[in-house]
TrEMBL record:
<feature type="domain" description="NADAR">
    <location>
        <begin position="51"/>
        <end position="136"/>
    </location>
</feature>
<dbReference type="InterPro" id="IPR012816">
    <property type="entry name" value="NADAR"/>
</dbReference>
<protein>
    <recommendedName>
        <fullName>NADAR domain-containing protein</fullName>
    </recommendedName>
</protein>
<dbReference type="InterPro" id="IPR037238">
    <property type="entry name" value="YbiA-like_sf"/>
</dbReference>
<dbReference type="Pfam" id="PF08719">
    <property type="entry name" value="NADAR"/>
</dbReference>
């Protein structure tokens, strides 16, 4: 995670490519409100082309929707990824992805939050002006209304990225650790069962601890 963000420390933000300028407005998404004002670049549909996994993405939404199918080597999935990547807007990318549920990667529900985190982190790594503005903010992050649980998850992702962008001396270490845990891929299969068993396993009584019945 820190490696994605390390690039954001120097320089100024590159200009937003005109190639994607017409895609900037759509009815989905919306910027977060921080310190009493809307911060435009926090919107996942905000057009700010960035590189991730060797490809250029017009917005975080384009990247997120394509990651649903990235890794599938079939010609159909490859064509879908490219169509999403070059879609005229984030909304168009979203619409394309909804039409191909049969090709959705099997682990998507376990990795989708981390996929969006990677896109958001990559964007801020490549736009230092945006990164500085986010890192310098201090108030709660209020994300726009979204589907399912995404309003909360988008807030957690932005909070994680904000903490990671700050100098180590300003980071809230415990808060960052919690945010990382909430936005990393979820365990699956036997690993998830083992974690659950460990969480519910009763603790052994400490040596010498007195026990007494309930009154």
């Amino acid at each position: 995670a820190q490696a994605i963000l390390a690039q954001a420390c120097v320089g100024s933000s590159p200009p937003v490519a005109n190639h994607w300028a017409t895609a900037a407005s759509c009815s989905m998404g919306g910027p977060a409100t921080i310190d009493g004002r809307e911060v435009e670049h926090t919107d996942n549909f905000f057009v700010a082309p960035f590189m991730l996994d060797g490809l250029e993405w017009p917005s975080c939404e384009h990247c997120f929707q394509a990651l649903k199918f990235l890794g599938d080597q079939s010609s159909e999935a490859t064509a879908i990824v490219e169509a999403i990547r070059t879609a005229v807007s984030g909304q168009a990318a979203w619409s394309m992805a909804q039409k191909h549920a049969e090709l959705l990667r099997p682990d998507w529900e376990h990795v989708k939050v981390h996929a969006m985190y990677r896109a958001v982190a990559a964007k801020y790594a490549q736009y230092p002006d945006f990164a500085r503005e986010l890192a310098d903010s201090v108030g709660p992050i209020e994300t726009s209304i979204s589907t399912a649980d995404w309003q909360r998850m988008n807030r957690l992702i932005l909070e994680r990225v904000r903490e990671e962008l700050r100098p180590a001396s300003r980071q809230h270490k415990k808060r960052l650790a919690a945010l990382v845990a909430l936005t990393e891929p979820r365990l699956q299969g036997e690993a998830a069962l083992q974690e659950l068993r460990a969480a519910v396993r009763p603790r052994a009584p400490q040596a010498g601890a007195a026990t007494s019945p309930h009154p």
